[in-house]
Amino acid sequence: MKKFARIFGILIISLCFVLSLTCCGEDKPINPNDKSGDLTGPVDLCVGERFELVFPEGVEKTEYNISVITSDEIKLNDYVIQGKIEGTASLEITKPNGEKQYLMFEVLPEVMPTSVSFSIDKGSDEAYLIGKEYKITCICYPERSRQEFLFNVGNTKNVIDEKKMTITFGEAGTFDIICYAKKSREAKQTLEIQVDFNPDIEMYQVLYIGNSFTKYTYNIPSIIKKLMDADGVIFNYTIDAPSGFWIADHSDDYFNYVDKNRYTHIVFQEQSKGPITDFNKFEATIKEFSSYVKYKDTKFVMYETWAYERTYMGGEAKQREMMEQLRDAYVNVGTQIGASIARVGEAFFAYQTRSYVDGVETLPTLYAQNDVSHPSYYGAFLSACVHYVNLTGRSAKTNTFVPTEIEEQYVNIIKEIADEVMGIKN
Fold first, then answer.
1. What is the model's pTM?
2. Strand 128-129's sheet: what is its strand order?
3. Per-residue pLDDT averaged across 71-87, rounded?
4. Domains of the chain, CATH where assigned
């Protein structure tokens, strides 16, 4: 009997041992009702270094009440602690079951960054595209140095969201994007980024080569942008338009622009009477400039300008003659290079033909005050509407932008004339 009891006891012990081996190494099941779990904090922390507190599985962070006992050494923000000054730091933690936990650790001297690793993830895209958001990753080394950064994004149209750590490119071209360590501008990395047009969105990146008829009394591309903004369309533009310039005067700047940037369209606007007084110079310059493009999908636009003010010209016939000479010159050269024609000069003439009744102008003038050639805001808006129709192929009348500088009845007339001269039927 004793022998049997001894054997039975050995069997029971062996079974317990086997069961213990079977359970060894398995994860302990999480008990959602266990509110006694401790938080995990850092062993030590450098000044400027951040550490996110680690919570037990199966509990909500909000169930813990955390307070800083030594507020000089560290700061706490959204469960992340950061070293402020050297010393001993401590946290008091009230667990969900009411028990207290205390975390103590040393705050060590700050480690200064010596280098930066910086990358922009373009995911599955073959190239970076305008209008898309890309994740950026920045790391300061040594890794215990302060992970805070400054950026130079190449231009104002490229935007970094530092909270999300993303960048959105607003313009096509090649840019140097620089990430600096905030504590040391010597620690940095530069990425040369090529940004392409996004085929999934409507957008324009336009270079204007002209003079004061493009930008003097009013910045006409800026008005075009307002029309585009009303459509929710990206419209970036660059203007090279010193007063009195012929297109040939832009040679250095033009070649520099097209070498460094990418454009959907390049707009040529000649000196106000240049196509008439020296057609050969006008033609030769346009052919030279249009042959020098880096990207073959760039489109050209001839900005057909207008005749001078009617009474200054000596009446309708003289004004018509100048308008037709300009029109024919722009169409001639534009046809040679495959350019579209923004028929602003014809729109000016059509507006004035509607305006003059028995020799009296009944509509607001298209010309600036005490000026027989440069546009008033009415003239600038008419020019912008013609360019808008030419670029988009859409009716100006369907665009919702209404400038506060012009009464709505005249806005409608201007948009209607822009549509007419550009062949839009409403």
1. 0.76
2. 128-129, 184-196, 173-181, 149-152
3. 91
4. 44-108 (2.60.40.1080), 115-196 (2.60.40.1080), 203-421 (3.40.50.1110)
